[in-house]
Amino acid sequence: MTAAQTRRLRAALEARVLERAAAFRERHAPLTPDRMAAGVGFRWRTAAIAGRDGLLDAASRTILVAEGQSPRRQRFTLAHEVMHRLIEQDGDLLSDLHEAYEGAALERALERLCNLGAAEMLLPRAEVERALAAAGPNPRLIWELAERFGVSEPAAAVALVGALGPGALATVFGGRPLAVYFAFGAAAPARGTVLPEAHPLAAVLAAGLPHRGALALPGGARAEHAWARPRRGRVYLLAAGVEAAGG
Q1: The pLDDT of residue 246
Q2: Structural domain of residue 39, as residue ranges?
């Protein structure tokens, strides 16, 4: 399979996952936690899960969601696990997924697709695209969409990256020293990655002023277009045209 064919197959996989998520939302709205779980023939409950946010227990037909998290985060985790079940039930989609990826890349791709599908369930792509058309790739959309749809900021970030397309990245930084709180998309830095004190994003927080333009990212990646804004001790970033180090 050529690189171009692989890209087309991966785009088709994403489109099919979004279709399944949208159909599920329409069929089972309003998407309360109970209705989401029941939509795939499961129940759900919170539990202590070491090192994981959620887990499908097929034997008991129960979706386990990590206890101690905010209700918004638990709702996204539940939607993510529901997407796992929906993908499992689609033999053609699973076959194409294994054709496009293998090994560790397969697991990463599956997790990404489940995140995108969960975001589509809770934040319809059409609404996210309308918000982007009105405001541009403004990082304030991360918190505004989260409030509007009652989801976590990471869920809103996933939805924005999905709508912005390949080469997009959404990241939230916080703490002192400033470190990655959440990142999703192209060349996403690992959670906890610390920014140097002299990094432009550290200056965004220190000065309370936004940054727009090209930007070097943690890990050596570079964004052709980046927009960062400070808010309540954090820095919110949306970027496009991201290329990994050496890319």
Answers
A1: 65
A2: 3-122
